[in-house]
Design a protein that fits this description.
The protein is of the alpha/beta class and about 240 residues long. The protein has one domain (about 5-240): P-loop containing nucleotide triphosphate hydrolases (Rossmann fold), CATH 3.40.50. Helix content is about 35%, strand content about 25%. It has 7 helices and 10 strands. The structure holds adenosine-5'-triphosphate. Adenosine-5'-triphosphate binds next to α1. Adenosine-5'-triphosphate (ATP) binds near residues 40, 42, 157 and 189.
């Protein structure tokens, strides 16, 4: 499923946090939203999943204007803060999410087996989430977000606070989900994670400063580090303000 974002703007309390953003995200790839804290990544994801409405512009997923009830079952979302129930087991948490998607019992049981295997939590299925480590909770959140086999998956800073070894495991899982045919949009402020993605949208102060294939973006830099593109953007902004 592809996404068209067209001239989208959003303000909170008169402060513009998304400023006339236009780009298209192709299906079957991993696209990242990369930018410093406060640049607007979460807001843009919330606009794309239809959780909030744009002040101006439009967002379409496969030509369907968002928000749209029809898209709910096709979209998966992993929020920045895990939306899990601590007093329930991993299995019960996933059963709860399955109920929200109206999955029937036998399909749900089968799918819980599958997603727990994908995130490598099968042996922790009956453990209460309050006894999970932070990394295990992240992986369970990921399992919950793909439970209904979404065609498109939004991940908001999924690796924040995760150690480098687990981060590798989690990215391997994203690649696996992509190869199974799901389009992934992932936000991050970790510049190195751009190399995991096919395309990158660089956000700075609510403005899209670049959107292209990661290889093309890196070719624009002198030292092969994507940070440079942010330095150029901040220099030209301060130049314009002088
Ligand atoms: N509901 C809201 N009400 C008021 N301001 C908001 C709201 N949501 C976001 N903002 C503001 O919009 C700006 C962008 O926030 P957003 O969370 O989208 O950035 P981000 O790039 O995801 O940051 P982070 O990496 O820290 O999560 C920030 O200045 C934030 O304070």
């Amino acid at each position: 499923m592809d996404i068209q974002i067209s001239h989208v703007s959003k303000s909170f309390d008169q402060k513009q946090v998304i400023n006339d953003i236009t780009f298209s995200i192709p299906k079957g790839e991993i696209s990242c939203l990369l930018g410093p804290s406060g640049s607007g990544k979460t807001t843009l994801i919330r606009l794309m999943i239809g959780a909030i409405a744009a002040d101006q512009g439009s967002i379409q997923i496969d030509d369907i204007p968002m928000p749209h009830m029809k898209m709910l079952k096709k979209v998966g979302f992993m929020p920045q803060n895990d939306a899990l129930y601590d007093d329930l087991s991993a299995d019960a948490n996933l059963s709860f999410f399955g109920g929200l998607y109206h999955m029937d019992n036998s399909a749900l049981k089968k799918r819980i087996n599958e997603v727990l295997a994908i995130v490598d939590l099968t042996k922790h299925r009956w453990k209460l989430v309050k006894h999970f480590s932070g990394g295990m909770k992240k992986r369970l959140s990921l399992a919950a977000s793909i439970l209904h086999s979404p065609k498109i998956l939004f991940l908001d800073e999924p690796t924040v606070g995760i150690d480098p070894v687990l981060r590798r495991t989690i990215w391997d899982q994203f690649q696996m989900i992509k190869h199974a045919g799901t389009t992934i949009i992932v936000s991050t402020h970790v510049m190195d994670e751009v190399s995991e993605c096919d395309k990158a949208a660089l956000l700075y102060n609510g403005t899209l400063i670049e959107y292209d294939a990661v290889t093309t973006l890196l070719e624009k830099t002198e030292n092969g580090r994507v940070e440079e593109l942010f330095f150029i953007a901040s220099d030209s902004k301060s130049g314009a303000e002088r």
